[in-house]
Amino acid sequence: MWKEVEPAPADAILGLTEIFKKDSNPQKVNLGVGVYKDDQGSTPILKCIKTAEKRLVETQKTKGYLPISGDPSYAANVQKLLFGAESEVISSNRAMTIHSPGGTGALRVGADLLKQFNPDAKLWVSSPTWANHKGIFSAAKFEIKDYPYYNSETKDVDFDAMRATLESIPAGDIVLLHVCCHNPTGVDLSDAQWDQVVSIAKSKGWIPFLDFAYQGFGSSIEKDRSAVEKFAATGVDLFIASSFSKNLGLYNERTGALTMVSPTASEATVAMSHLKKIIRVNYSNPPAHGGLAASAVLSDSALYDQWVEEVAEMRERIKAMRTKLVDGLVERGVEGDFSFIKSQRGMFSFSGLSDETVEWLRENKSIYVVKGGRINLAGLTSSNMDYVCDSIAEALKA
Ligand code: LMR
């Protein structure tokens, strides 16, 4: 069956980790996949999750199936996190949430639902965007278009160009937007720019699909959701893919959510009925453990407070690594201004390193960076910082 078939290329991000694992260089550094590391280079289980899991194991009485949409308390807790507990969206029942296998699963089932009811719509993504966005929506048979986002000269959002394109997108098309900590650039819209984007969405009638995978990694859990609140207040149809992979460290528990906000509660109920059909023929119902653990943290005030602190610790460590990296490059007399790395947000930096440099670093130094120059700052530690700075300096001089 496979004799004449060409092998598929490795995944741009997860494929890099596979190569990294096989690399025998003891100095190897993985700055590829977006996974948080502490200063010892490990990806810890958060303390709040450990406690929640212990309670879960002691009290859990069954491994019976969850409902197709997941545990109802998970959905309720996700909504509080996305909109704030007092939100009108919640009290008016305009939002419906399902527990998806990770943020990726949320994007995919949302894409399948949109394709079913909006078959001619195009999907618009930022240029650049997370490598998997195009893959997910192509798999759901969408034609994909780019809207301008990052200006590599100014190292900032090219907002005039972005706005002009958003204004030209027809009603019914879908626009994928990163709520915070834009992946891969680390460059976000300002509050005033979000206001403009929200008002364009409302007046033009395109459908916003918000990818919210890094809540808490920008400024704080509450501040990072500001764009979600703005969109929800407009009363337009809206999709939100969110994830607890990073902020609760539940990477391998595949704990995400798709939330659909509709103009009215009855429309939201209809949307949910069709989403459940899509899930049923895909993975049937979600894996329970991560969602139950997340729910236990979100619904217990002491665990919630501990979580907020743990997220702040991760966020601040990444920020510190940004400063150390930039200072380290300056100390080594590297040509060029890298100070922009300090003002980017979240896990990633669009470093400006060329694909040639990225390849050189991998081949000569066993330092793994995603093609396009995206660096995961959380992969930097006090122990590997000098090695990484020396290597980048050598690469750029070479
Ligand atoms: C990343 O962008 O590195 C993460 O979101 C992990 C992934 O699935 O690609």
Features:
16 helices; binds (2S)-2-hydroxybutanedioic acid; globular; 398 residues; Aspartate Aminotransferase, domain 1; 46% helix; seven-stranded mixed β-sheet; Aspartate Aminotransferase, domain 2
Query: What ligand species are in this complex?
Result: (2S)-2-hydroxybutanedioic acid
**Number of individual domains:** 2
> What gross morphology would you assign?
globular
Q: What is the CA–CA distance across the termini?
A: 46 Å
Order of helices and strands: HEHHHEHEHEEEHEHEHHEEHHHHEHEEH
CATH superfamily name of the largest domain? Type I PLP-dependent aspartate aminotransferase-like (Major domain)
- Note the total helix count: 16
The CATH architecture classification of the largest domain is: 3-Layer(aba) Sandwich
Total number of beta strands:
13
Strand content: 5-15%
Alpha-beta classification: alpha/beta
Alpha carbon gyration radius: 21 Å
Largest sheet: 7 strands, mixed
Q: How confident overall, as mean pLDDT?
A: 96
Stated plainly, the CATH topology of the largest domain is called: Aspartate Aminotransferase, domain 2
CATH class of the largest domain: Alpha Beta
